[in-house]
From TrEMBL, chain A:
It comes from Streptomyces flaveus. CDD domains: ABC_MJ0796_LolCDE_FtsE (cd03255). This is ABC transporter ATP-binding protein. One of its GO terms (cellular component) is plasma membrane. Keywords: ATP-binding, Nucleotide-binding, Transport.
TrEMBL record, chain B:
Signal peptide: none annotated. This is Membrane protein. Keywords: Cell membrane, Membrane, Transmembrane, Transmembrane helix. It comes from the Bacteria. The keyword Cytoplasm does not apply. InterPro entries: ABC3_permease_C, Membrane_comp_ABC_pdt. It comes from Streptomyces flaveus. Pfam families: FtsX (PF02687).
Length: 255, 847
């Protein structure tokens, strides 16, 4: 499977018009009957910075987990870079995830016992791929972590940990980077740095980024913002402002 | 994978030490058992007094049942004497010796007996010196029937030299005076008679063994050993005689030593079951704790793209690295342990000193394979759940405990407990040592079942406790109870290991002591005779002894009792089985000194080709009264004997008794081993017997009831072996429990820190942990006692007709004390250490 993917990847490296993500009629029902996603369809073009917003329990995290192959949807189709992942088993989904998707979590999820350098190359190591040293060096310099590589995550500040996590997400040159509340645990300045970094990645490298957040200021950095409620997409805003988004969310809260 | 595994390993010292200790101890035990087993199969006895000849021919001293391990026959078989002449004519043969052995001992000037190395085979003909490797003689060979040559050690012990006169007791004849013609300078060579005298004493001039010798030794030209051996094999084709050269000669030198070699196999066989069970249990437990401590990291790996298989491989790789490191010293220690064990067995007379152990790399390799397999299975099992979950769920769950104990696991555990209970019924059906072994097995299997069903039970118990809790209860107690409920998996792991220790100690020790008590009860009530007369230094009782005893005043009855080995082939559930067991040799008047509780028939019928059997054997092997049974006697002769009596006291007196007529001519010495004497009970009778023993050299008299039947210090060797096993395994178990508890508690740093951040004082945390320790200790004791109670009750009913076992009462409080203090100490120490770190720091170091 992974060999096949590698071959296909080389072919698909040429610019084409396959969307980075295509979701069709996605639904997820948890045991006990909680319906977290209800018939969501969505297309994300390459080089887009998309923010997904919504109140707690609106289904935004579930949407991301399903779109990213971290969790299996109950019904519907998920295509990443043109490849269907909804029907795959845990192992194949993981393999595809490793090849095409990068992750940034709210809680960084760096493995505490490994050094920063080891954490950054972990997904590549797991995939059995040799890291592209030059690309890594560029990334590490870009996020200013060159002198922190031998440290353990616990010895870094929150912002530094999150930047390390971003490098990890990008190390394999994924088709999409998903970020789940990437600034949720950071102070204002660090949060600002991280958001700028994500926006720059999109603008400079044509990287596709999908970010889940409930912070209107964070979402305002994105090209596009979806607003979710009760498992559905209720609104789509282009080049949103923080004020628009805040108003929209407050309205939802009252509704 | 290895790189990651090692990186991740560095920060989990406590848990990894536990794994290393488990593997180390397991390697020691498994290797040790392996060395015993291999020695039982392959160890080489020294050629001893056959060192001077190159090729040895003797009767085949092994019985080879189809598809089963060969059984060594301890009594000496015979080969035709004229074969020696024929083999002597083969090309390349330079000398031939037909050797006979018979009981012989010197009596010194003070009337004390000077035994040879083995009194029952110390006597030989002069020609047997031809077997010795290098034996200069000071003097000359015995010239006539009144002369003997003796080995240097015996001569020195008796204070005689060439030309002196000395009394000799040989082959059951009364002591007679001989002239010492020479002293042979070879250790343990024995007493040499003129060849015709030796033939006569050994009973080879007439009777059942006329015209035979024990073995034939051939000296060959240099380099011709192999060709001669091949020629001899050609000559012997179709007979049941065997040929040995080189190191194999030792096997033919002493059949009884070879027989005790197979004891090593039996021993290793009986140890292997419990050793593997305990080792597996301990290693699985240690790995479970270690991997549970890494659940979060493994889940994070899942989140960044590790496949389920990679997670399992990672967990396994780490465990294998630790195991490999611990295996090397473990295996080395195992060899040492086996050596120590052999030394103990030699000191207790279970093994002959001449029997060495075989030290080859095989047991270590087998151990490595076995442990690697166990580690793989345990590690994969422990990482299974985390590896299979969707990544997000795994990360979420890793922050707490798995939500629900797996239902399959719980059911399998309950089934095991049920199976154990069923197994513990066995002592009711079979009142034998084997039947009692089911008790200990039932206990241990029950404890493994508990380990599996434990989480569900612990949660249940915790919930019940929480419901019963009074509202005003103190905060630490409330926290402790909540922890039992919320961390059911963790608590159950700890409780079940402690319970395993309780069950193991109680069932194993009490099974041993109960069988021992029941056996000595059997022997005591079954022995009517008050005195036992024997002559160990002479190799057997002289022939006139029985008449002399019967004529002693105050003696009501006297009968000789001997023992030998028989091999009994039978069918069990359609399968061919073979069992070798010791057998009494009895005469028809044995009933007057022994009460075997005969149910059918009578011991008075024990003449001719007849046997008596215990009712257990009669039932299980279809050997009822009047049946004819095919047996193989101790030197390999097949006989067909009729069952004339079925007795109940098989535990004390063994499964089968042969009539003396049947055994005559089929034992090495041909002499009675001892005489049981029933007197009128007066002191006079006792004095008269003592006087009789005094008047004849080598005779000893002792009371049959030594009054120490049930005490552990007087335990017979097999009980001692089992008790030693219990002590060693218990040490291993306790060490691993301590490690496991320390590791488990050390992993709770984050939890403790969170509690402190929420305003719990260190004092309250210590109290909470102590309450938990108390609950854990109490739960372990209760479940352990319950699991042990059922098999032990059934054992008591089966063996002692009362619903409790026999044994030291102090074992109960001692076990309780050990378990409770172990729980307290191993929880208290890591808790104190965790409290020394500031809570915020402890939490920061975790993510």
């Amino acid at each position: 499977m992974s060999k096949l993917l590698k071959g296909v990847e080389a072919a698909s490296a040429a610019p084409d018009h396959t969307p980075a993500i295509a979701l069709a009629h996605l639904g997820k029902t948890y045991p006990g009957g909680v319906r977290a996603l209800d018939d969501v369809s969505l297309t994300v073009e390459r080089g887009t910075f998309l923010a997904v917003m919504g109140p707690s329990g609106s289904g935004k995290s579930t949407l991301m987990h399903c779109a990213a192959g971290l969790d299996a949807p109950t019904v519907g189709s998920v295509r990443i870079d043109g490849y269907e992942i909804a029907g795959l088993n845990e192992t194949r989904r993981t393999e595809l995830r490793r090849e095409r998707i990068g992750f940034v979590f709210q809680s960084y999820n760096l493995v505490p016992s490994l050094s920063v350098a080891d954490n950054i190359t972990l997904p590549l190591r797991l995939a059995g791929r040799a890291p592209d040293q030059e690309w890594l060096r560029t990334l590490i310099e870009r996020v200013d972590l060159a002198d922190r590589l031998t440290h353990r995550p616990a010895e870094l500040s929150g912002g530094q940990q999150q930047r390390a996590a971003i490098v990890r997400a990008l190390a394999a040159r994924p088709a999409v980077v998903f970020a789940d509340e990437p600034t949720g645990a950071l102070d204002l300045r660090s949060a600002h740095e991280v958001l700028n970094l994500l926006r720059d990645l999109v603008d400079e490298l044509r990287q596709t980024v999908v970010m889940v957040t409930h912070d209107p200021a964070a979402a305002a950095q994105a090209h596009q913002a979806l607003v979710m409620a009760d498992g559905r997409v209720v609104d789509t805003l282009h080049t949103p402002t923080a004020a628009d988004l805040a108003a929209r969310l407050v309205a939802l809260g009252e509704g | 994978m290895l790189y990651l595994a090692v990186r991740m390993a560095r920060r989990r010292v406590a848990a990894l030490v536990a794994v290393a200790c488990a593997v180390l101890g397991g390697a020691v035990l498994v290797t040790g058992t392996g060395v015993l087993a291999e020695s039982g199969l392959r160890s080489q006895l020294p050629a001893g007094r056959l060192g001077g000849v190159d090729v040895v021919v003797s009767a085949d001293q092994t019985f080879r049942p189809g598809g089963d391990l060969p059984i060594a026959l301890p009594e000496r078989g015979a080969v035709p004497a004229q074969l020696a002449d024929r083999l002597g004519e083969l090309p390349g043969v330079t000398g031939v010796v037909g050797d006979v052995s018979f009981p012989a001992a010197l009596v010194d000037a003070d009337g004390r007996v000077v035994p040879g190395e083995d009194p029952s085979t110390a006597g030989h003909g002069w020609s047997s010196t031809g077997l010795l490797q290098d034996a200069p003689v000071d003097g000359r060979k015995p010239g006539d029937s009144r002369e003997v040559a003796v080995d240097r050690d015996m001569a020195a012990a008796a204070g005689v030299q060439a030309g002196d006169r000395v009394e000799v007791v040989a082959a059951g004849r009364d002591a007679a005076e001989y002239r010492v013609s020479g002293v042979v300078d070879a250790p343990g060579a024995g007493v040499f008679f003129a060849d015709p005298t030796a033939e006569q004493l050994a009973g080879r001039d007439s009777g059942p063994r006329a015209g035979t010798v024990d073995l034939i030794g051939l000296r060959t030209e240099t380099g011709a050993t192999d060709s001669v051996a091949a020629a001899v094999r050609d000559q012997l084709r179709g007979t049941d005689m065997v040929v040995a050269t080189g190191e194999d000669r030792g096997d033919l030198a002493a059949p009884d030593a070879v027989a005790s070699r197979s004891l090593l196999i039996l021993l290793a066989g009986s140890l292997s079951g419990i050793v593997v069970l305990i080792t597996g249990f301990v290693m699985a437990g240690a790995l479970g704790v270690s991997i549970a401590g890494q659940r979060r990291e493994l889940a994070l790996m899942r989140a960044v793209g590790a496949t389920p298989k990679q997670i399992r491989r990672l967990a396994t790789a780490q465990a294998m690295v630790i195991a490999a490191v611990a295996l090397v010293p473990g295996a080395a220690l195992g060899y040492l342990l086996a050596g120590q064990f052999r030394q103990q067995l030699v000191e207790r007379g279970v093994l002959p000193e001449t029997l060495p152990l075989t030290f080859s790399p095989l047991p270590a390799l087998a151990t490595a394979l076995l442990l690697a397999l166990a580690v793989q299975v345990s590690a994969r099992g422990a990482a299974w759940r985390t590896s299979r979950m969707p990544a997000t769920e795994a990360v979420a769950e890793s922050r707490t405990e798995p939500r629900n104990p797996s239902r399959i696991r719980t059911r399998a555990g309950l089934l095991l407990i049920l199976a154990a209970t069923t197994l513990s019924v066995v002592p009711l059906l079979a009142r034998t040592v084997l039947g009692a072994a089911a008790t200990s097995m039932a206990g241990v299997i029950g404890a493994i079942g508990l380990a599996m069903a434990g989480p569900a039970l612990a949660r249940h118990a915790g919930e019940t406790l929480a419901r019963r809790l009074r509202p005003g209860v103190s905060a630490p107690t409330w926290l402790a109870v909540s922890n039992v409920r919320g961390y059911a998996l963790r608590i159950a792991g700890v409780v079940s290991t402690l319970a395993m220790a309780v069950v193991f100690v109680l069932t194993y020790t009490f099974a041993q002591t109960t069988v021992m008590t029941a056996t000595s009860d059997d022997v005591r009530t079954g022995t009517l005779a008050q005195e036992r007369l024997s002559a160990p230094a002479l190799g057997g009782l002289p022939e006139g002894t029985l008449d002399a005893v019967r004529e002693t005043s105050g003696v009501r009855a006297a009968a000789p009792v001997g023992s030998t080995t028989v091999v009994w082939p039978y069918k069990l559930l359609g399968e061919d089985e073979v069992e070798s067991s010791s057998a009494m040799i009895l005469t028809p008047d044995a009933w007057s000194v022994l009460d075997l509780d005969v149910r059918f028939g009578s011991l008075a019928g024990l003449s001719g080709d007849t046997i008596a059997v215990s009712s257990d054997v009669a039932r299980s092997r279809g050997a009822g009264l009047g049946e004819r049974i095919g047996l193989i006697l101790g030197e390999g002769t097949r006989v067909n004997a009729e069952v004339v009596a079925v007795y109940d006291r098989g535990l004390g007196f063994g499964p089968v008794a042969l009539s003396r007529d049947l055994a005559t001519g089929h034992t090495t010495t041909g002499l009675d081993e001892s005489i049981l004497v029933r007197t009128d009970g007066t002191a006079t009778a006792q004095r008269e017997l003592a006087a009789l023993a005094e008047s004849r050299p080598g005779l000893t008299v002792e009371p049959t009831d030594t009054g120490t039947g049930g005490s552990l210090t007087e335990a017979p060797p097999e009980v001692w072996v089992n008790l030693a096993t219990i002590v060693v395994l218990l040490g291993y178990l306790l060490l691993s429990i301590a490690n496991k508890l320390v590791a488990t508690t050390a992993q709770r740093r984050g939890e403790i820190a969170t509690l402190r951040l929420n305003g719990t004082t260190p004092r309250q945390i210590r109290t909470m942990m102590r309450r938990e320790a108390a609950m854990i200790g109490a739960a372990a004791l209760t479940t352990g006692l319950v699991l042990a109670a059922i098999p032990l009750t059934l054992l008591g009913i089966g063996f002692l007709d009362r619903p409790w076992p026999a044994g030291p009462v102090w074992l109960l409080p001692a076990t309780a004390l050990t378990i409770i203090s172990l729980a307290f100490v191993t929880i208290e120490v890591p808790t104190r250490r965790a409290l020394r770190t500031a809570p915020a720091e402890a939490l920061a170091g975790r993510e």
